[in-house]
Every structure is written in structure tokens, then in C-alpha cells.
Batch of 2 targets.
Target 1
Amino acid sequence: MKNKKKFYYIGCFFALLGFYVLLQIKYINDEWFATDELDIMVIGKGIAQGQFLYKDAPSQHMPFSYYISAFFYKLGAVSVTEQRIAFYIFIAFFWTLIAFLYSDIMDKKILFLYPIIHCCMIQNYAMGTTILSEHLAGCGAIILLLEFLRFIKKRDLNIKSCIMISISIVLTFGTIFVAIYPVFFIGIGVLALELKWKRENKYKIKEWIVPFFKKYIKLIIIVSVPWLLLFGYYIVTDTFDDFILGAYKINREVYPKYNGGLGNNIFSAFLQPLDQLSSFFVNGFQFSTWNYALVLQWIFIICCLIFMVKFFKENGIGIGCITLMYIFSLGLRGIFNFHGTACVEVLSFMVSYILISYGYKSRGKFNRLKLSIQSVWIMIFVIILSGYFQNISHFASLNFSEKKTYQTDLIQAITDRDEAIWITTFDNIDSMLADRPVVGAEAATPWMWEGKGKKQFKHFKKSAPRVAIFVEEHECWGHKLTDYAPQVIKFIKKNYTLMPDTAYVYVRNDYYEEAFQKMNESKEE
């Protein structure tokens, strides 16, 4: 009997996993995000082929998205399509795991429904369905929130919770630097609860301080393990300084010069969600501009407000404010945009909670009313789902192959399988299609050039790659390559030659004749 029940749960797990994967497959042919999305995949590919993150493969982002992508590459996910499918499975696994692990503190219907609502929303803003670190952070954010709710209810912290919290921090702060804020607020909330409970029970400090540290030392150890392993790896490979420079210093000291000051201090970041919300409410009351996406946003905001009112009533002002700041801090780089996808996932959970709690569970109670809560629930649910199903024809036109361009075929013909190419543009499409790792990408953005590239260029020139992707008119956020990195242009013009019939594929002068011959041979084939 126990075996039958075990097989039943395993079957349900994989059935739900398959459903969530299928839910995302509709987005497989959506437009690629040539910068942020392909940055993860191209650098992940480079790591899988032996490059060291931050040293050989420059980045200003946290590391774990790249290592996950590298793992998928090792498993055979080489193309964008294959990488997307691998990430769909990865995300679906966590959605399914959440549904099974947290059904003891949350209604299963809520946990089942929120990924569906999430998918309905992300397709309604630009690049929302592309694979970004924010998607991984969304899974971690839900886990962290549910662990906080579990802690409020059970006042305990077992090994399973410690492991899940550790995973959630890897998925949030380990992929997005500013995700340290929501992690911080949850930590403050836990500490506040502990102090409140001890005061209610009139414990003296001597009576609870030792048990308190014993209780949380296991959490500290388990949370520290992946980070100690990561830092140990960086120290052994002599890349720790590169990590600090790329993931921290450039973000705090250089990047703010180019993005309006975001990140230059710990308080300025909180202006972004306020700006987003004020813009939302200003535009939201202009009914002439309403569309489906705006209606959906209103549903999300209203459900979030209802959820928070209920949460404040049940848990008090202190914990309510902590939870509100948790949600708020997830939107530090926006809410209903691709940078806000982690926030959108938490909002989707709240929408699911409200629909199930005040809609589904109320069925039959108001059947004599002409406009019952039950009918309202059905109407809102239909509105949410309609966005997904209005593009359901995407399933009929799914294409799992990727058409290469002349440039990418040429790059493959004139380079070896694992040979890196030099990329000076903020675009990873050609390197991804050609299945080649990249180097020298610091020149692609002014902040990476200022933070690292300018200092390394002297050494880089001594071993410059045989092939480069170069556009002299390249511009990033209004900053021209000719202005911020003129030495790159001068070096390429002197030492490289443009290949025939291409717009931006350059070959080092000492390799040009051989490359030209390989190009002709590939044409004959």
C-alpha cells in the first residue's frame, strides 16, 4: 500500500513537471534577448569550454546563472533553443517542488495555480519570456517567502528548511546582486519575530540567547556551504579578485555613472519601485490608454493590496511592514518589466492566493446573489488566462531549429571548434549561433571598458584572437565605441581585415590568407 502511494506521488510530481514545461514551451520561438539572455548562454558556454568566469569571460553579474547554463551545455544543450528547454525544465522542477514541499502550510491549489498566472503575465511585457537571471530569482523568492510563512506558523527551523533557504539564496542573491535586499528584509523579519516571541514568553536574555545561536548556527553553516565552495574555487583558480571586481566594484563604482546612479548607494535603489508605481498609477487612470496588459497589472496590484491587508491583520504591523518591504525590494529594477520578473512571480503567488481564498473557496456561499464572488473569481481568472490563450497558435508553429546567417557559417568555417572570437559589440547572437566562446567583451559596454577593459587591453593585444566581430559605429546607451574605446578601433583597423561579403567579421592580418582559403572551401562544400 505504501509503495502504491509512493508511486502515485512520483507520478503526480512528473506529471506536474511536464505540465509546467509544456506551459513554457509556447515561448520557445519568442525573440531572443541578444544581450542579457544570450550573455548567460555565451558565458556559460565559455565556462563549459574551460574559460574562467570574470577573468576570461567578463561579467558584472553574479555567477550562478552562468554555472547553471554551463552545466546544461555539458549535458548537450548547445543552441539557444536547447538552452531554453533546459531552463524550462529547471524552472518547472522548482515550481513542482514548491507545490509538493509547501502544501502543509499553503493550499495546493494556490501553489499549482501561481506559475500559470505568472506565465500569463510575463508574455505581456518586452522580453518577459526570455531566459534571464530574474526567472531563477523568482523561484528563489517564492521559496524564501514560503519559508518565512512556515516560520511564522510553526516557529521552527528544521534541516529541510535550512536547505531550502540555502537554495533560495543561491537562486536570488547568487544570480542578482540587488537580491541581497529581499534576503536582508526576511532576515530582519525572522529576528524581529524571535525577539517578539521571547518577550511574550518573558524569557530573560540568559535563558534564550544560547538556544537561539544553537538554532541558527545550522542555518548559517548550510547557507554558507555553496558560497564557501564558490570562494574556495575562485581562490584556487586565482580569480577571486576578478570576481570582486566584476560582481561588486564595477556595479557599485562604475555602472551607476551610466544608469542614472542606480547602485551607487544602498538607498538610491529604493527610488526605482516608487517611480514605477507612481508612473503606473498616473497612466492607470487614463482610461483611453487601457489595454489588456494594463488591466492585468491592475488585477495584480489590487490582489497584492488585498493580500497585504489580510497579512497585516493576521500578523501585525511589524511583520506586515517587513513583508511589504520584501516585495518592494524585489522590484528595485522595475516591476512589470523583464528586470522585475522575480517580483512578478511573487505577485502571481499573491494573485493566486486571493483568487483561491476569496473565489474558489467561497463557491456556494453566495449562490443567491446575482453577482456572486464566485462569478467575479471566474471573470478575473478568464481575464488572466485570455492573454495566454490569445496566442495559443504559437504551439502550432513551434520551430526547434535555428537558421544560421552567412556570418555565423563563416565564423564556424574559419575558426576551430573551441576557438574564442573577439566581440566588441553588445550583441551575442553571432557567437551563439556559431557556437564559439568569446573574449574581449569588455569593449562592448562603456562601464566594463572603464572598470576592467582599459587596464587589460595592453595584455590582451599580445594574444588577440584570430577573428573579431567589430562595428566601428557600435553604440551602447548613447555611448559610442569611438568615444570610450578609440584604442580598440585603432588596433583593429591596423591589425585586422574585413572578410569579403560581410559587414563586421574581421580576421587578423597574419591569418587572412588562410581564412580566405577556408571560406572558399566552405562555399564549395
Note: The two ends are 63 Å apart (CA to CA).
Target 2
Amino acid sequence: MENKFIVNIIHRPEMVPEYAEKVTGHGKAEDIGRKALLTESLDIFKTQQKLAHVNGLKTTIQMTYASLFNAEAVALAKEHHETYGDEIALTLLGLPCEQFREKYKTKDFCIWMFSMEDKMSIVDDVFGKFYDCFGFYPESTGSYYMDAELINYIKAKYPSVKCAVATCWEEGPKAYHTCNNSWYTLMDGGPWAPWIPSKVNTHAPAANEAEDSGIVAIPHLSRDLMACYDGNGSNFGTHPQNVLRGMIYDSKTWEFPYFYNLIDQYRVIGDYNNGIAYNMVFVGPGWMNKMGRWEAPYELLKKSYADGMAYYGELKKQGMLDDMGMAEFADFWRANKRYTEPECALWKDILYGSEKQIFWYCDPYMRVCVNMDQGGAIVDLRPYAAKLEWPVGIGTDHVQDCSYPFLIQEKYRAGYFTHYAGEGTVRSAKVSYNGEEVDLCLCRTKAHFKEEAKADGGKIRSLVLDPVDIEFSDLTIKLQTVLSFDEGASDIKISREILEMSNPDAKVEINEYIVACYGTTEYSEDMKCVTLNAVGTETKTLNYEYKCREEYVENATEVFATVGAIKTRVGMKAEGPDKVGYFKEGYAFSPMFTLGYKGTLTNKEVFTTWLSLAREN
């Protein structure tokens, strides 16, 4: 069956676009009410709308606060709603204008960074002005990020809202560094595809109706799930001018096949998600000003957007794409998704020509990244099961940092490949024989996706890795790994099976481990909130004190750690021959902790572990 591929095309008449005053002002003193700026901005919005409509595509027009004071922008929205079926919505981007600056006496423009008192006041101002212009309240809204308290307030005060742009995918320290350490918006750790946010934390999907915030959230742009994770996400998204910023186009012909490949890769995602694939484009006029952007002239900026809309339009003509407004999409999503149903993406490199493959998994309990170039190691793990309260904005402990904390993050905590001492965060296994040891992180492989129906209507989704050959000096083994995600459970089952051995009577040792910590940036947090435990015929416990200690328990039923600072419990259980559970405390130079199981394996045997996550109060 053909995947149902849905796109949200979202335009906003941002009368004072980010960056544009500096570009179009030509060194003049700042004047955000300057007529030339407002006129050019509205002209660009008209161009973007025309490029969508000429290709038979409808849009969601997210009115900005500034645009609500412009009679022509309001009239255009009404006209395009009547003529093309465009949805008239409201964004909390585009706040800066003379009226806003006069009232709030600030140059801040990110709604989530204001105090809660100001957030409520701003929302009431913007929603009230929208109602004055249109005679109704919007059904969708958005920003780069919307914190849980903000969403809860909007849903309670303006219940018509059912959809929101709620976060950027992987816009954290990587993006901050590529903006000369000046883009103070850290929001790593959220879903890359639509989700229903919990009332407690926007990033963490709701597990049931009681946790449901009342809206469907969509990400700000659909990103390349590999290139964006490895580098700056602002260069790799389904906004054509992101691709120009990444310089991923032919400078002679002005063609950019990578953009089409990116859209097509999203079409394939339906294969892993019951036939539903989603894509979004979210643009303001600042990208297409006459002075040019990203070393590209205006003519190329316009061509890139025209070509992008033409590609979506052609897919629609062929019956391969459904264009929806945001509110329309929210209704569709709720009608076709269960709370516990995960979002999966088996992603391949479409940019650099490698054969690298990664797998993303997201549900109400966790977000996981598995890297096949590292033998199926888990290289990113976010414990959504904790549903961590994380207020953001002025007056909270997190003025700019909205990220959901990690337990594993290879980009900020080294991963397997580390310095000469210490360890990085990763979930992998080591195989040993006669004093030789091989970490599966060194065994590149590929994987395929498999689903198995359950009696309760859910599914078990498995990532089946191709077997790898491990060579010791006098023994060769063929080992296969399978990672399984049971819908509705908050654990990951990992099975290792020896398929062949050059000496069928040999025994190898397997060491299943997770090296973890917590944080949202590269910088270490205080680990004294961590307690390590091994439970079996005896129980051993350590409070983390950076003393490099370790403990072992024969036939342990579980090893686990509690991380008080993020209210998270992470544990491991095992099933296999001769199992021994252990934990290791880190030290100041390597402030991690390790949980693991050791066992033995011979030909045709399986060693299975479960990695579990829960909230720890």
C-alpha cells in the first residue's frame, strides 16, 4: 500500500523578519517601523503564497503580532482563506514591532524565554488582537519552542487551539556553536515527527489521556535525521533555503537534488509507521529579501522556493501527497494514532555518500538513536518516562535551555570513541575470548525493520541487525543483535545470538553495558545525585562520590541507577548463562556511571538484556 504522505506548508507574514532590519537598513539607525522594510516583507509573503498556490497547494497562514496591525496582511489572509482554503492561524513568532516594544520595553522575541507573567500577558494581547481582526480565535499556533506551562495556559484560555509548532529538532549546542555562540536557544531532545505533548514537558509525548496537553505538536521543519544530528540542523531541513545555507546545491545550475532526496526519505518513513509519513515547511519572509542570503542572490533564493513548491505540487498531482492545514492535520493525527504508538525512522545517509544507517525511536517513555556504524550501539537516550518538569524562561532555573536531558549522548559525552582515558556514554557490548576483547561498537553493520502484532492491538517493533563476524587469534564467531521495542512498555530488549563458531565447543564472555550520565550540554553536571545498585542474593549500593569504585553480584536480578537531578531510574536485567550483574562509579576526569551484566555464550546460545526507564521520585 502506498504511504499516506502529508505536508503542512506554513507561511507567516512576518512584518519585521528576524535579521532583515540589519540587512535592508544599509547601516541606518534601527527602525523596525521603516516603511521599506514592511513593504518588502509583505511582498515576499505574497510571493511565497503565490508559489504554493500556483502549484495547487494550500497553506497555513500563521499571522504574526506585527502583521495584525497591517490591514493589507489581514485582508490577504481573509482572501486566501476564501479563495484557496488556507487556514488562518496565529504564531507567537514575529512579536517585535513598535507596539510590542512600546508595551514590553524589551528586544526579547522568543515567547518561551519571558517570565510566566509576561507569557500570559503576551498571549492575551496577541490572541485578543487576532480575534479583533478575524472575529474568531485560531485553531493552531506555534513558535520555535513552546514550554508546557505556555501550552497549558493557551489550551485552557483558548480551547479552540488544537495544533502548534512546538520545538525545533536538535537545535541545541551544535546550532549554538555554528551561530558564533550567540543563538541562545537550546532545545535538543524532542521528537522529530508529530506528537501529542504531555502536560508536564513539551518534549515528552503523553502516555494517556490524563497526560494529554490537548494539542497535537509538530516540529519546526523536517530535518535530515542524520546530517542534522551530526551537525548544524539549520543546514539540513525541508525548507529550501536551509539547503542553500548548507551550500548543498550545484553552484552552476542552481539545482539541489539533495532537497528532493530529503523529501523522498520522509515519504519512506511511512514504512515504519503504519503507512503515515509527515513533512513540513515553515517559512517567514526574512529568507527571501532582495539583498540575498547565505551567499546566494535573490534570484537563487526565489528559484529554490519555487522549485521546492513545484516538487510538492507534482507529488500532489500524482496522488502521492496530501496537503493539509495544521488544524486539519491535528484531527487526522488524533484519528489515526494511539498514545503509546511510537514513531520510528530507519534513516540512511543521503548527503555524504557513505553507507551509514541509524534508527530513531520515540514513544512516551523514551527517545532512542541506534547507530549501525557502531554495531547497533545506542548513542542517544532521553528518559521521557520521567516526564521531567522543566520550566523555562526568566524567573526559572532554565532561562534559555529547554532541552530534555539525556542519559546517553555521543556528541556531547564522547560516545565510544574517546580520549586516551575515561569513557563516553553508549549502550553496547564487549565480547572476550582468551584475553582478547572486541567491542561491538567497532563492528559496522546494517539493519532492517520488523513488526509483530500483539493481542492487545499494539505491536512489537524490532531492529534486526545483519550478523557480524568477530575474529580472535584462534576463534571466529558470527553474532547477531536484535533490539526490540514492546509498545506500551518502557524498556528495550537486546538479544545477542551466536549463529556460528569456528570451534563449536568454545565459550566466549559477553559484557553487556551502558555508560551513562545526565545533562543537556557538553559540560558535566554534579554526579553526587546518582545512586548505584545491584540486587540479587545480596544487595549492593553506592552513593556516587567520584571514587572509581565497582561492585559485582552473582545472578543479579537487576542493576540500576537513580539520577536524582532528573528524577530518572535506569536499570538493566538479563537472561543468559552465568550472569553477573555489576556497576561502576566514575571519577572526576570521566564523570560517568556504568551498569552491566557479564555472562558466557557458546554456539547457538542467546544472551538477552532489558534496559528499562522509569520516573524516580
Note: The mean pLDDT is 94.
